[in-house]
Batch of 2 targets.
Target 1
Amino acid sequence: MRKIWLIVKREYLTRVRTKAFVWGTIAVPLFTVGIFVFQIIVASKQPDHSLKIAILDNSGGLSTLISGGLTEKLKNGQPVFRVVETIERPASEESVRRDLLAEVRQHQLDAFLVVPQDAAAGTPAEFHTRNPGELMLTRSMNRAVSDAVVAQRLESRGVAVADVTSVVKGVDLKLIKITRWGESVVEEQMFITAIISGMLLYVTLIIYGVATMRSVMEEKTTRIIEMLVASVRPFYLLSGKILGVAGVALTQYLIWTVAGALVAGYGATMAAAFRPDTRMPKIHLPASLLVYLVVFFLAGYVLYASLYAAVGAMVSTDQEAQQMQTPLTMIIVLSFLLFNVILQDPNSRLSTILSLIPFLSPILMILRIAMQTPPFWQIALSLALSLLTTIGVVYFSARIYRVGVLMYGKRPSLLELVRWLRYT
Amino acid sequence: METTDAVILEGVTKRYDSLTAVGDLNLRIGRGAVFGLLGPNGAGKTTTLRMIMRILIPDEGSIRVLGRPLDDNTQDLIGYLPEERGLYPRMKVRQVLVFLAALKGLSEDEAGRRVGEWLERLELKEWADKKIIDLSKGMQQKAQFIAAALHRPPLLILDEPFSGLDPVNAVTIKDIMLELRNQGTTIILSTHRMEQVEMMCDSICLINKGHNVLSGDLRAIKKSYGKNTVRIEYTGDGHFLDQPALVEHVNRFGAVVEAKLKPGADPQEILKAAVLNGTRISHFELMEPPLNDIFIEKVSEGHA
């Protein structure tokens, strides 16, 4: 046992002190947060000047309502859209369209809207713009057109409405999930929490699986393995290595959790101080989910790491390692591809079955837990099946490892691997 | 007998599929001596050493080290310098050595103290906190030797300990080996360099194709061959040795030749031929055959 501890300690300390660990610890959350922030920025990007638009109205009457509905303002108080030209029921729609198109191309206009004759019946309006990716713009335009059509319909039924938006505004549906112990509110944040949890497992399983493989390869290619197996049983060596790398991963999790809590707490305080009305996105991260994250990470990690270690023991060069690890990585990627199945309906029969299958279960079960915690027996069964598989996998991996680390040269064929398993 | 032997192999066999790496090998290695394990490439030396180290488990036969059957604890009694060298390239010299000694059961404090002494002795003191990768090949070699000997094992297995060392360092390592031997350490030396074996080993075992083909006390072995070789240093014409009636074969090393005589041949005849030939002789010695010749003879017997 003392020897395993020495192996764990060396593996842990040499890894935690590397630059790769420091950068990985900083980069992964930055990257994740960065993607979210980037999307928010892109989605809410405002132009820096008013957009000159024209409305080609084939219906007659709608253009006034639409212009009236385009009330959005830029930060400097200017309106977002300035309607510089309105053409109602032109004699030749074709020639007007051609002219407008030319004006947009010559930058005299930024965009133009075409309202069809029977817009009230539901025929879509067309918004011709150079930048269809500016979601905020298209959304306000869409709302203005919609509201105008609704107002016209109401008017034709004898209801005069000044502010359509406040009339058609509905009521949101708040989802409340009944569990065995009580009721809990299902919020949109749960999706975000689930995706973040799943991504975290996905990324760390691959990173630390490959790290274990590299560590085995390093000892093999530098030939220090001969010194090690002259002192320690290969199985202890393998166990120590896997535990040491797991320790590094858990340290990283701990840092992320503490840093995340601090940033969230600080951010909330700052927001409350400066903008009391700000609605902070609530991060739905119960302690039980954190515990499950650690449990399922460890379950998945030991399973995959022992296989990655076996791959590391089989190969002698980086190219071989690249080839041999691909099938393993593909299985992890498969879990990632199945994210949608779970997110769409975490309690469907398909989701339930998928989250019980070893190799897929660590990532998929954590998604289900984050979305809507499944019955405890399913979690327990999923863990038990995973554990049984792990025992079998470790048994074979340890044998391949023991023979492989002392074999140099060509990587073994499948037949040779079977022979390795039989060596005593 | 058993208590005096450091290592006993009885009927040890190790097979890889159809290949028998070591077959029914019997071997006794006495305590407190330098023992040479010799053999051509692929003879099964490394496999034998790995079995003694319990890196490999024999298919048949038994191995006892220091009077005990092999288990996890016997590994700690053995220091090992493998032929395939290697240390963690990105770890510091001191850290690696303490780690490896701790794996052999030494406390880390004690290992740390001894590392200092060893580094001093092998002139690596300034390199203690450098990474292994920054060391020259010779320095790495010395560090590896420290790793084998640091926990003061009663049995030390050294596979080609002098390869990669310059003459000065080779002498240092040789002196340390003999010093350890005098303190009671048993040393198994595996090498292809026969002159090293002749200088250092008390007894030897020559294995070929996994079998023991010659073993025993080195002096006794050489004596059994008798003084059948002449060693001659000369200047001038060397044709005086072309005498198939007297000479079985000749090893030429430039100015020095070693000629193995036919049984019953009189060495005086060769001297006479040299004088008649006008060759100047500066050294003429009748001696036992060098180990190199015995090695080649025994190994080629096996191939015949």
Note: Chain A is about 65% helix and 10% strand.
Target 2
Amino acid sequence: MKLLEVKDLSVSIHGTKILNSVSFNVNKSEIYGIVGESGSGKSMTALSLMGLLPSGSQSTGSASLSDTDLLKLSEEKMCTYRGNAIGMIFQEPMTALNPVQTIGKQVAETLIIHGQAKKKEALKIAREKLNRVGLFEEQFPLDKYPHELSGGQRQRVAIAMAIAMRPNLLIADEPTTALDVTTQSQILDLLKSLVEQENMALILITHDLAVISGLADNVAVMQTGKIVEEGKTNKIFKEMKHPYTKQLFSASSHVPERSTKAEEIPLLELKHVIRKYKSPRENIFKAPQTFTAVNDVSFVLRKGENLGLVGESGCGKSTLTRAILGLDELQSGEIFLEGHHVNAGKKLDSSLRRKMQVVFQDPFGSFNPRHKVGRLISEPFYLIEDRPTGNLLKDAIKQALIDVGLNAEDSEKYIHEFSGGQRQRIAIARALIIKPSLIVLDEAVSALDVSIRAQVLDLLAELSNKFELSYLFISHDLSVVRNITDRVMVMKAGSIVESGDTQKVFENPTHPYTKELIAATPRLPENLTA
Amino acid sequence: MTNFPRTLIFGGILFSIFLLGALVSFIWTPADVEILQITARFKLPSTAHWFGTDHFGRDIFSMIMVGARTSIAVAVVAVGIGIALGVPLGLWAAANHGHWLDDLIMRGNDLVFAFPSLIIAILITAVFGPSAFNAIIAIGIFNIPVFARISRGGALSIWTLDYILSARVAGKRAFRISAEHILPNIANLLIVQGTIQFSLGILAEAALSYVGLGVQPPTPSWGRMLADSQTMISIAPHLAFFPGFAIILTVLGLNLMGDGLRDILDPRIRRTQR
Amino acid sequence: MLQFALTRFISLSLSLIAASVVIFTVIEIIPGDPASFMLGINAQPDTIAALREQLGLDGSLMSRYINWISGMLVGDFGISYTYKVPVSELVLARVWISLPLAIYALAISTLIAFPVGLIAAAKRGKSIDITIMGTTQLGIAIPNFWFAMILVLIFSINLRWFSAGGFPGWEEGFLLSIKSLTLPAVALALPQASILARIMRSSILDTLDQDYVRTARAKGLSQRQAIWRHALKNALIPVLTIIGMQFSFLMAGAIIIENVFFLPGLGRLIFQGITQRDLIVVESVVMLLVFAVIIVTFIVDLTYAAVDPRLRKR
């Protein structure tokens, strides 16, 4: 039973074509997936259906919801459809709710606006809806404020608001991208149960193929504003007619080739490291409490090894990273690099400094926008006693850029002239330039599109082969870690709960938390990977 | 000059007129402002006296030119004080965020904010007597927390970025990071705020001169011209109009320049029209 | 909430103490010997000595400071040197002009700025917005005392709707007194209203960009409903702080404006105090003004917490 029929939907914004003849159908009570990388137009498609495109947009084509063309509706009429016949939830739950209104009021508002109920009655119904999404009265009374809720909980509130009027269609635009793996799986389960029980259709937009494969009945693959392939999920996965679909799949399950073997020499060693810090005072009468972010962590990273560290947000991995890099003091424990003590806070010995470098997550905040690339990547030379100058420096910069697959002339450009993937390459060049033994990769590929990610992982593997580099690979993304590490450690609430060979840990996890994490991670069907 | 916003150009021209007048006044004015010609008083604007004459027969146009000197000089130095002392203070506070030093500097800021420049001027002149110097100090002191707060705010948002972490991994300390990474990236904020404080300085100097706390006679100042014109406003309103317009147009010019500068220096942030 | 109020109150007290130290230092320490300063160069040694005794200048700095503070706490601000009456009497008479004037101006300014800013934001880019932006741009540039003079010229001298100055006194009637404060309040309010309107507009535009407004639209609210029910309250929060800061400028402005309208307020008192070197008067009035500003900041902070639930936790 067709619910939504989109025919030749094309959208331009200020003359630039964003969507090009997009056509697809969504049936009642089905889950329809739209998958693609950034810039593919998937969010724009959702916004056109909702009539929420930015100003200056022109659309042609039709989008018929049960025989009414949404695109031809007046703004006034469209308001009666939004939140009523169609609901939508967005990517960033942390900012999706009004911070100065209670959650009860915000859910009730959907009902009041559409004339379903008056204030008191609406609040009663709001309570039911919040229960339906898993937020029960005891912990989540109606007068709670958004800032008292976690990201996952806020997303549940957003879902409650969107389904309050029992719409026929719910659009979810990257609803779990900003959430932890375990929270993601809970939210996806919630959405699935809503589809089954409320007879609602769901358009699920995501960049994550594994999520789609686990949930969607039908899927459309989008690239630069067009649908390149569309149909039943299983069929698409088996056949993969379009080259882009193939590319997307192979990138998602990419395993870079590595030839380095781990030697038995310890490179980085942590012994009973404890890092605490004072949390801000609750009130002026209580003393400030101490929070133990890293609780007795010990491990060894061997020369030539790729060691992974996985954990969800708040587990302490960022604090641990800073301690390893010598940026924060330890309350107890020791860190050794090639046998030498890493003394945080005090002057880190420059001979030590050159052995260890870092690549961060955010390609957009990683660089000073006012400096040229040459200056940016040579920053690690500061404080190295025998740092190169003049021509030697120029050569070092040139070589580092070539090693990461860029051009020597790029040293004269500014960072904003480069794409996200290129910026990560530059970040790697910066880490590489002083020829370290260890590179800490802190969520280094998490913000990249899947195809770019595969390229960068290949680059990292190639560099480790070439320069005998070891990596400490920190991530919340289990599927990435699985494909590129030799050994992995799982971190929770400041402690390492399990560690061992990557394959063994993933196939036979022993700790309950590891089991939980692995169970929650969506996986691509294995027999279909390239 | 192709892509400069209209506000910048228009404001720039407006302000430059007065700046030019101030500079030219050092070598030439249509008439000598120090000579009193009682016989020629209250003349309306004419070809001989473009803006007319005041109650002492002085040529108002010349007085406006010389007055421009005072207004601009006081405002410039006051902004200079604010930046020279306020920016390092703000950067220092941001580098010590979470530490009691940061809190102390912020408290100090709040304290100065409780004393509007007028009050500071009153305190200073009560003890030292009125003068242009005291006006500069009074306005300058108030500028310090303004720039401290703005630099601190801008710096704090940069301290959280990854490239600062990279710099720290490279071994750079807070002072070097503030100078090499933070300052260049808040420069735009400071420039825009600088034009705003400049225009506020002009208004503040006019107010201080109006109540007699600024530059003293015989040096002409727009504020005092207004004070003098007050009692005679019904018989010679042009005495009040011209200094008033001078203040308004200079301040307007600076504010427009500030808007325009904000547009070119930070286009991605200010995409909503301010 | 109580927690918050308590911390703020401590903050306020510390500020007050710090401010008093600053004022005390400038007035009583810097001139060296306040007594000879006040009496001038030609004073006789015995007159100076007598004044010194009267002012209690022979005590240590600490004891003089304590005396001053404890005096103020019970309302004793010393005896004015020029008028020979308690400063508190002088101030009390005049504060009932300066304070209402500042409040009146604040009220006018807010009442004009809020709707104007709201309309400009709602109709962004359209001609009404451009007109408002242009007018406010001009409004910011106008010195309030000049505007006051122009208002006097038009409304008092030419149209004769208002008197050109002076204050009848509250005993003569509430409305009559308000009338004489109207032109001054309007003159004061103009530049502040312009600033406030612009800030209101940009604050609303900022909130319109927020994700929760998009969520509201997705629920089915029209743009107008989204502004009213979601954007406004959030937009008001930063505007509140500005209003608090504006109060200090308004007090300062009121002091200056009194000059134009011959209002017997605190301004006249201070300026005469300066001319006549009456340090006692200057010291006390400045302290009171700063006190007023700090109190208003405190009230604004409390309102802030009342409006924004995120602040109440800490």
Note: Residues 51 and 266 of chain C are 25 Å apart (CA to CA).
